[in-house]
């Protein structure tokens, strides 16, 4: 974990509620796709955890949804402003299990952490398929970005206004794949768990107090005991998850 000051290079709306922020700063502590950062915002006691969408040696890309005071403040920020950010938080996806035909499933704001994962898998020569799930067409983002990486992309909408009507599992059930990676709301993860025919890895969304394992506020029960989403997670293997009714 490293505390650094980042400068905003760009901050644009992708939909009515989803924004893409690009920042310049020290990304050396970000070691894997699937990790997250914690952002300090004026007037707010707790930092805001945001998943890493993409990164390189000098820049960091965050895609976030406006859901409260913290993200509302972020949406109003302009290039040149600076943010105090903790980087290198959480574990990430393990690419070594992917096989030749991995599938990536993202629901809503669970889509962003899959972008850098897809990029890395394509660099390894994998045949990557991506399923993006949204409620309606106005919420769709990053479809073209995944296609530009060379991924085969499927989009589902609950209301059928774009792509396949239904959920990400609607497409998954008829797909040939070697392994899955997913991120999204818990009901979606639970559905993927039940519908998947292979092993996989799931990234959990959770409210976090500290973001680095000190407060124990985001613990969940697994086959090997309680684990902290922010520290031992947010990515967990399918086989270790215990779902509560």
Summarize the structure.
With 245 residues, this protein is of the alpha/beta class.
Describe the 3D structure:
This protein has 245 residues and is α/β, with parallel strands linked by helices. The protein folds into 2 domains: 2-89, Translation factors (Elongation Factor Tu (Ef-tu), domain 3, Beta Barrel), CATH 2.40.30.10; 95-240, Rossmann fold. It is built from 5 helices and 15 strands. The longest helix has 11 residues, at 113-123. It starts with a strand and ends in an 8-residue tail after the last strand. The mean pLDDT is 90.
The CATH fourth-level homologous superfamily of the largest domain: Nucleotide-binding domain of ferredoxin-NADP reductase (FNR) module
* Strands, count: 15
Mean pLDDT: 90
> Mind summarizing the main beta sheet?
7 strands, mixed
User: Into which percent range does the helicity of residues fall?
Assistant: 10-25%
Determine the oligomeric state from the structure. Answer: single chain
Spatial shape: globular
User: What is the alpha-carbon Rg in Å?
Assistant: 17 Å
In whole angstroms, the N-to-C terminal distance is 34 Å
Q: Using the coordinates above, name the CATH class of the largest domain.
A: Alpha Beta
Poorly predicted spans: none
For the biggest β-sheet, the strand order reads 10-9-8-7-11-12-15
Number of domains: 2
What structural category arises from helix and sheet content? alpha/beta
Q: H/E order of the elements?
A: EEEEEHEEHEHEEHEHEEEE
CATH architectural type of the largest domain? 3-Layer(aba) Sandwich
Count of separate DSSP helical elements: 5
- CATH topology-level name of the largest domain: Rossmann fold
């Amino acid at each position: 974990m490293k505390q650094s000051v980042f400068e905003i290079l760009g901050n644009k709306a992708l939909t009515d509620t989803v924004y893409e922020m690009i920042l310049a700063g020290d990304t050396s502590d970000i070691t894997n796709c699937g990790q997250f950062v914690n952002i300090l915002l004026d007037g707010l006691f707790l930092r805001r955890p945001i998943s890493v969408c993409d990164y390189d040696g000098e820049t960091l890309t965050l895609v976030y949804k406006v859901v409260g005071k913290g993200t509302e403040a972020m949406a109003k920020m302009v290039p040149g402003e600076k943010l105090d950010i903790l980087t290198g938080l959480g574990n990430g996806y393990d690419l070594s299990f992917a096989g030749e035909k991995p599938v990536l499933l993202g629901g809503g704001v669970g889509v962003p952490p899959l972008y850098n994962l897809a990029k890395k898998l394509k660099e390894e020569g994998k045949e990557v398929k991506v399923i993006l799930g949204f409620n309606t067409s106005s919420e769709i983002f990053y479809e073209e970005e995944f296609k530009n990486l060379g991924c085969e992309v499927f989009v589902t909408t609950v209301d059928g206004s774009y792509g396949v009507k239904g959920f990400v599992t609607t497409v998954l059930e008829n797909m040939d794949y070697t392994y899955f990676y997913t991120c999204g709301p818990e009901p979606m993860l639970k559905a993927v768990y039940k519908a998947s025919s292979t092993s996989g890895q799931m990234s959990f969304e959770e409210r976090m107090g500290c973001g680095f394992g000190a407060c124990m506020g985001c613990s969940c029960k697994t086959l090997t005991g309680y684990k902290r989403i922010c520290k031992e997670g947010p990515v967990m293997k399918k086989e270790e998850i215990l779902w509560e009714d």
